[in-house]
Write a structure and sequence with these properties.
Layout lengths: L5 E2 L13 H5 L1 H11 L2 E4 L2 E4 L2 H8 L5 E3 L3 H4 L5 H9 L7 H14 L2 H20 L6 E3 H6 L2 H10 L6 H11 L11 H24 L5 H11 L9 H32 L1 H9 L4 H11 L5 E6 L3 E3 L2 E3 L4 E5 H4 L35 H18 L4 E2 L19 E3 L2
Parallel strand pairs: 1-8, 3-9
Antiparallel strand pairs: 2-3, 4-6, 5-11, 6-9, 7-8, 10-11
């Protein structure tokens, strides 16, 4: 006789309190303790999957799961602007029915060849930013480099004039508040940023339709025009939302991830020395940092059809959060998971970019940006060290990274 599946409501699951002192002090320890009790936990985001194996499988499951859509923000009483952006612009949240057509258009424009062609410009940008601070003896990597480097790269990719980059920097910093829960304290700031970004891209798209050039905006316009499937026609909201999302994701998560990567290298001097001796290890260092300290901690999904995992029943409408931070430290997949090791043989299996149909559209760009930045940093300042110890505390935000990283330029 088959044992009936357990109802979620009957389970005594650990609760992840993101606002607790324990989580803010040592999030890895909190998640490790929760995972020792169960592969599943509860939080303000819903039911959180802590297991690498389960999270990895669910990233590919289109039969039972879908993007959370705008519901996550509707429940926080967000503005119509935010709801519209979540519905039509945020690919990670977008339901399959529109996610796939929008992604097809963007992917044809966001090619590996285009990213490769941009790599010399990435290196020049990194060199110029670091050289500007060479005589100071000290560098705050976050404010002096990370806040400027990814935004300049992604703006060049999109075809945004360099003179307009300061505008985008301010808007994107404000848009990063969307990762907080709740977003209530930041509503006006987020709305102002979205108004500015949508207005800018409305004018840029109109201009590029009659004045095409070699940039992603033109490529997206061309890709949409060439599409044979009527579903590949983007609405105005999808076009502008997609561009805002490319800009936001291309800057915010990269700047946070680069900060965490350098922090981990500074905290592990032997790893840094290995990188300076062999710059080809830069990509491996990025992968390992993305595994251990990902800038994106959770991926949101909603159950669409009855789902049973490990004898537990998830009914339609159940919110699920794939906890990437926990899954990437699962000892069943990664040996000594709390150790930073740039020679780890399976670090590239991290889930920080997602997988399959939901693989981060800008994964190639982000990896190239961080690799170039690390190689330039190692070449320019091989003997850098931390001015003071830094911790990477937990936060209620879904995206995380250091706010400051003071380095001594020896």
């Amino acid at each position: 006789m088959r044992t009936p599946a357990q109802a979620l409501e009957t389970l005594a699951l650990p609760f992840l309190d993101y606002s607790s002192i324990e989580y803010r002090t040592d999030p890895a320890a909190v998640l490790r303790q929760a995972h020792a009790r169960s592969w599943l936990a509860k939080s303000v985001r819903g039911y959180e999957v802590l297991s690498y194996e389960v999270a990895s499988e669910l990233t590919l499951d289109k039969e039972h799961l879908d993007g959370a859509g705008s519901l996550y923000y509707q429940e926080q009483d967000a503005s119509d602007l935010v709801i519209g952006y979540a519905t039509e612009g945020m690919l990670p949240l977008m339901p399959w029915i529109r996610h796939d057509p929008v992604r097809r258009v963007l992917q044809s424009a966001f090619s590996a060849a285009r990213v490769k062609k941009l790599r010399p410009a990435m290196r020049r940008c990194a060199e110029q930013l670091l050289d500007a601070h060479a005589g100071r003896g000290e560098l705050d990597l976050v404010s002096d480099f990370n806040d400027a480097y990814p935004i300049e790269v992604v703006c060049r990719l999109l075809g945004v004039p360099v003179a307009d980059i300061p505008l985008f920097t301010e808007w994107v910093v404000s848009l990063s508040r969307l990762s907080h829960h709740p977003i209530d304290p930041f509503k006006d700031e987020i709305d102002s940023a979205l108004q500015g970004l949508y207005g800018y891209f409305r004018e840029l798209v109109a201009y590029r339709r009659t004045n095409p050039t070699e940039d992603v905006v033109t490529a997206i316009i061309d890709a949409e025009a060439r599409g044979h499937d009527p579903d590949d026609r983007l609405s105005e909201g999808e076009m502008f939302g997609a561009l805002v999302n490319l800009l936001f994701a291309g800057h915010d998560t990269t700047r946070l991830q680069l900060g965490s990567t350098v922090a981990l290298l500074m905290q592990n001097p032997t790893q840094w020395r290995a990188l300076t001796a062999n710059p080809n290890l830069a990509t491996a260092a990025v992968y390992e940092a993305m595994r251990l300290q990902p800038s994106l901690h959770t991926i949101l999904r909603t159950v669409t059809n009855d789902l049973v995992i490990d004898g537990i029943h998830f009914s339609p409408g159940t919110p699920i959060a794939l906890n990437i931070f926990a899954a990437n430290r699962d000892p069943a997949t990664f040996d000594e998971p709390d150790i930073f090791d740039i020679n780890r043989p399976n670090a590239a299996r991290h889930l920080s970019f997602g997988r399959g149909h939901r693989l981060c559209l800008g994964h190639g760009l982000a990896r190239a940006e961080m690799t170039e930045a690390l190689q330039v940093l190692a070449a320019r300042f091989p003997n850098i060290e931390l001015v003071e110890e830094i911790s990477l505390p937990g936060s209620p935000a879904a995206t995380q990274g250091p706010d400051q990283l003071l380095l001594r330029l020896n």
